[in-house]
Amino acid sequence: DAGVTQSPTHLIKTRGQHVTLRCSPISGHKSVSWYQQVLGQGPQFIFQYYEKEERGRGNFPDRFSARQFPNYSSELNVNALLLGDSALYLCASSLGITDTQYFGPGTRLTVL
Amino acid sequence: QQPVQSPQAVILREGEDAVINCSSSKALYSVHWYRQKHGEAPVFLMILLKGGEQKGHDKISASFNEKKQQSSLYLTASQLSYSGTYFCGTEINDYKLSFGAGTTVTVRA
User: Fold this and answer.
1) What are phi and psi of B82, to 5 degrees?
2) How would DSSP label each residue in A63-75?
3) β pairing state of B103-108 and B9-13
4) Rounded to whole angstroms, how far apart are CA atoms A48 and A32?
5) pLDDT, tens digit, for every residue of B48-69?
6) Please, are residues A50 and A94 in contact by the beta-carbon 8 Å criterion?
7) Which of B91, B95, B99 to mutate to test the interface with A (most CBs of A within 10 A)?
8) Is B96 in the A-facing interface, judged by CB distances under 8 Å?
9) Which of A13, A72, A95, B90 has its CA 20 to 30 A from that of B32?
C-alpha cells in the first residue's frame, strides 16, 4: 500500500507570496495532521483534520489555513510568506484522531 | 508543553546500549516515539499509553512512567541502522502531539 504522499517535494517562494501544499493520506485513513519542522528541531503541530473538520490547531498565525476534502486529502495554505516560514512541512495521516500518525516525506519550503 | 529530551546527542559503537529520556511537565495520555534519518520523514517506532506499559520493537524498547510523566527509549545492542534523530511526541488529551527537540544517535562500526 502507498504511504502518505506530499507535493511538491521542494518549493522556493519570495516574501509576501502565497503557497499551497498538498497531502494524500494512506488509503482508509480519515485524519490528516500538518506539522512544521525547522532545521534542528522537532515537528511543531499546525492543524489536525478529521472527516473534513478542523479538530485541532497549534500556535500558528492566521496566515496558516488548511482544509480537508471528501477524499480525505488535504491542503495547507500559507499567505504573506515570511523568511521564518522556511521549513520542512510534514503531513501525517491516521485512521482516527487518536491513532498512530504516519508521516509523509514532507515539502521543503524555502522563502527568499 | 513541549517535552524535554535528554541527552541531545549520543555516539555509540555497534553493540553498545543507550537510553533516551523524554519528560513532560503535564500529565500525559500517551507517548509516541519516532526516528528520523537525515532528509527523510519521521518513522513511527512505538506508542505507549498511560499505565506504565513497556513495549518493544526488535531491540528497541520503551517504558512509560506515569507518575513521573517520563518515557525512556532503550537501544540495545545498537546497529548501524539505529543512527538517526529520535523524537518523542507527547499527547495530553487533546489529540495534539507535542514533539521534543530530538536526540541524535550516531552508531559507529
Assistant:
1) -80, -10
2) TEEEEE-TTS-EE
3) parallel
4) 6
5) 887 666 666 678 999 898 888 9
6) no
7) B95
8) yes
9) A72
Cβ pair A89, A11 in contact under 8 A: no
| Residue B30: closest CA among B70, B90, B71, B86 | B90
Q: Which residues of A touch B44 (CB under 8 A)?
A: 100-103
C-alpha separations of B15 from A28, B20, B41, B82, B100 in Å: 39, 16, 26, 11, 26
CB A15 within 8 A of CB A111: yes
What DSSP line would sit under A23-65, residue for residue?
A: EEPPTT--EEEEEEE-TTS--EEEEEEETTEEEEE-S--TTEE
Q: Do B96 and A58 touch (CB under 8 A)?
A: yes
**Average pLDDT rounded to a whole number, residues B28-38:** 92
- Cα gap A63→A75, rounded to integer Å: 14
Report yes or no: B97 and B44 within 8 Å, Cβ to Cβ: no
Contacts of B103 (CB under 8 A, 6+ apart): B5, B6, B7, B8, B9, B10, B20, B85, B86, B87
The values of phi and psi at residue A61, to 5°, are -65, 165
Selecting from B32, B43, B98 the residue whose C-beta is nearest the C-beta of A45 gives: B98
Report the DSSP pairing between strands A87-94 and A107-111: antiparallel
Q: Could you read off the pLDDT of A60-95 as tens digits, one per residue?
A: 999 999 999 999 999 999 999 999 999 999 999 999
